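[step 3/7] fold_predict: job queued, chain A
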Amino acid sequence: EINHPEEIIENLKFPLGIENTYKDFSLNEEWESLSGINLRFKAYYNNVEVYNSYIDLHINGNNELYAIFEHVYKPEIEKNEKLNESDAIEISEKHFTKNFKCKKFNILDTHFVYYIKNNILVPSTFVKIKAENSPLTVKYVISLVDGKILFYTSNIFYFNGNGNVFYPNPVNSLKNTGLRDENDSDSAVPDNAYKEVVLRDISKNQNNEYILSGPNVNIKDIEAPNDLPPTSVDGNFLYKRHNKGFEAVMAYYWIDKACRYLKSLGFNIYPHPLDVDPHGVYGYDQSHFTVENTPYIAYGDGGVDDAEDADIILHEMGHSIQYFQNSQAFTSTGESGAIGEGFGDYWAFSNTYDISVANGFDPFCIGEWDSTSYSDTDPPCLRRVDSDKVYPDDMEGEVHFDGEIWSSSLREIFMKFGKEITDSIVLEGQYLMPPSTSFRNGALSIIEADRNLYNGEHLTFIYNVFYRHGILTQ
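[step 4/7] structure written:
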């Protein structure tokens, strides 16, 4: 039975061959698990902390020691110190301001430590830095021999970067329906179509490079053509459209922005970051959300690359929202398929409406940049959300066209009650829809959502909208 863990540490010194090196260990962490109690002892050499040296003891519910993990050696001591504490602080500060993009900070702690590297105790300085007006705190261990950063870690694993995007696309922002793709050339779109934005909560890879992977979106190469996602040494992703990284930035920014909006309404829909391939679909001018293996979105190229247009990005995101809300309610065919396409168009409209109005562009036109290569309307539109189509007279049996009945109904509710109320009712309603839902059951689910969220405050108008579009008959 184990009653005095300190005695175990003493008894381990001889078999580990460290009896003359480590004179002291102190209990640093203690935590419980289903298996019992777990203890971590930090090592000290001549009363100086050895930062990365420890002995872990694991004791089961019967008070028996069943596992030991240790990181202790019989090291030599590096004696060629060339730097001092102030040098180490300066090195830490430079790294902090460059990599974490924070110029205002405070030094919380510095002290002398050893760090085991290649079985050698390296004299080092521990530095702890905290950003002002932010929870970000970073710990460093700097070698006093050569000034190298031996170790650093932060309490936040995401960073902010910068990127160029279309807002939401150049036809819209410039009010220029004459723009054309011109084989993906940079010269086809004026510089003032780009907007520099903050890419929130991006992360780093094992090479310490910034990557477009965060708590809401994970940019990946999933389908052909195999274009690796962009990386950055400084957090800047300031591409133009001819660079393959531009579509990756667009997809990350717009989906992340919409995910944060969802959470602000109280909808935590995605169980994990959404995988997105900005150049997929095997090079075809199509995009899709697929649920094979791990669900993901892939955007195609050809004509205007699909991920250059925020409407297309958000439309496909709409399919993923419905899947993670209520996967059996929405199929790819019939009336439930039309609701899926209609909601995708509505979601694009809802998230760009204020921007389109500010730009002075028709807010009810969807995909105006993407559709420049195939639409014969002015403005060019993939579809519209202000149709006067009615059910069942205007049904054509094609989910995208029939979806205009649904998107136009939701658009009318939006124009009456605004974005947050309408989005909340529609999103909540999608949780309530039955498998392979019909237009009628979809409408009744939205009505029920208004009862649940707003005590039926908006019911009369919602009833009338669905009645005018033929979805409800009385």
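[step 5/7] annotate
The chain has a mean pLDDT of 93.
The CA atoms of residues 467 and 473 lie 6 Å apart.
exit 0
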